[in-house]
Write a structure and sequence with these properties.
By secondary structure, the chain is an alpha/beta fold. The protein has 16 helices and twelve strands.
Length: 532
Amino acid sequence: MQRLNIRTLTLITLMSILVAGASAEATQHCDNSDRSILFISDLHMGLGRLSDNGWNPLEDFRWPHALDKFLARISRDHHDRVTLVIVGDFLELWQHPSVPCAYSQATPCSVDQMTNVAELAVSAHNNEFRMLGNFANRGENHLSIIPGNHDAALMVPQVWQVLSTALGGREGRIDLVKSGLWTDCDGTVVSEHGHQIGADLNKYPDWPKVVLGDRRTMFSPWGEWFVETLFNSTEDKYPMIDNVIPQSNGLAYYEGDHGAIGSAAEVARFILLNIFETSIAQKRQVLGPSGRGHEGWNTSRGRSFGYRLFADSLPAASYLRQRMLAENDPHFDELRKAFDDLAKDQSRLSEEQVRSLCDLLAIRAAQSRDARIRSCNEPSMGLAVQELSFAGDDELIKARLEELMGSAAPNVRLYVFGHTHQMDNGTTLSVKGENVRFINDGAFQRLIDERTLDSLIVKHQRPDGLKMSRGEAMRLIPLSELPPCYSFVQVSYRAGNSPSAELHNWKMAETDAEGSIVAPDSPGCADLLKPR
């Protein structure tokens, strides 16, 4: 046996010490009880202010004072031992009219161009990035940034370097979640942005890879094209159009005043997505979480309804439904035609989706007792609403959790995501024999629902004394009048129990000296909590 010399023994000893030290550090770090974990998302920091110091119409994040006080409050309340996770769409890198690239085969965005776009956002929000860097450097705080679909380019090292430099965190205080999936130290709490759930229109086929094979060109999902083509062209005069929840309502209000925005076929596709994101939740509320959707519908009959298949699946009081059913309303002629075409096209509207819409028709008919709502089967079938049940988007989340538990997150018990901008207290699902709760943190952003928008309209009468339409309201009412509430999730650990999560709002106007932590449905905040 070869004898080990003194130098080799010394190296082995040092390596043993280092390994032991690393293990001890990992064990200490895995004591979640000694720190707090908070989640925010969807700030969408973009182009900032114009040369006259007014806000660029494409800028969504106009609330630096509220952010500053929020960071100070959570750091103080939790004794500077906070892990703050930004759950995607921290930056707005899809709206950049001065950089000539877009979602198309002709002019795809290059890595260099996206670096330029990131530099624009950093320049516009230097103060906010400094606040976050200072927060991360305070005490034992930490900042983790998960890329979302709007800032997926952060996955590219040279783009991330632009933001990292602006944040200025000390070594080890700020990290980019390069896998797209954040986990706590023992893997029980898992977070991602959410655009990889189901057949999302913003999904990346090889996430977290965001560049094409040439490594110089960015991949762009369909959702990027939608934002650049439809929202960019309208937000100049209607800055509130993407602050309305659900977002299909904002498009409907605009169309009610002007007619089709961009391609009616693309608007129809977007509205269909929102029907499944919002109406399905209401459907589950009526029918309960168990069982399956009714599979005996005559889908050919359902498709024959054309635009009525979509319109009647919406609540009776829905603005969009009312305008679609008003056939003498020329503003919606193109949209009705687009829905007629969509209903016939099995490549764009699957049989499963038709059955889900038929379920919704049955529910709406039972809720409103409106005989004009058609059934996907003859009335003689006598199907009772109670026979239907559908888990809707919970099933998509469950499928995503099964995927994660089979690979990157086998121990997940709490799943936090954002993306939809709508707060959701979630529920507990049985996934691979384990109970897993999910929760949506909403958006750290000022948003508004239909009811709250109507209350603002009452305060803003037109000069001629007439009531302004919702479309006019999106143009005339400034974003500063939207409720000053920004949602977040706080996770706590209790000995022997799974981690628990609570939704909150940070409520603070830019003119306030301090803010307050309030319930998600607190008076003075918009009604953005998803119904369950």
